[in-house]
């Protein structure tokens, strides 16, 4: 395992974190709130984003325009079944979802959920660091690298670890600000 392999893994962790944080509701309309919801259509499970166009014409409204109008009720059923706290309504040939304002209690629940997600990703970053340190230790014991190289690698991985933990913290602060926004 090389330091560039580690960096690639850490980049993937940050991408995954941002995707998970995007699915936490902030009181603002966002296509990511519904895009990955599974819907039973055409005898299989498809995501909303595969079945139509998702737009946010207003800060608190999501519109879904299915490409096939015959599956309007399937999409509404999928959103209801997903139990994400959104009420989808058929409005002609489109589905309209009005995002209700968050209560302070609900905001706190989302912030608590977000902190759990952040911790999960911090642990993942630590595990990647640990795996790399074990790899370096094995290389040192087998004589593939010198003691100086081992120390340099340890220092490099710690620097990377600190950078990515900071990136997680920044993403969390931004999301918390969005959640506290009224």
UniProtKB/TrEMBL annotation:
SUPFAM superfamilies given in the database record: Ribosome recycling factor, RRF (SSF55194)
Any GO molecular function: ribosomal large subunit binding
Annotated ranges, domain Ribosome recycling factor: 17-179
Keywords: Protein biosynthesis
Record bears the keyword Magnesium: no
Gene3D superfamilies: 3.30.1360.40, Ribosome-recycling factor
Coiled-coil stretches: none
UniProt GO BP: translation
InterPro entries: Ribosome_recyc_fac, Ribosome_recyc_fac_dom, RRF_sf
Family, as annotated: Belongs to the RRF family.
Record PANTHER family: MITOCHONDRIAL RIBOSOME RECYCLING FACTOR PSEUDO 1, RIBOSOME RECYCLING FACTOR
Record-given protein name: Ribosome recycling factor
Organism: Candidatus Curtissbacteria bacterium RIFCSPLOWO2_12_FULL_38_9
Lineage, opening ranks: Bacteria, Candidatus Curtissiibacteriota
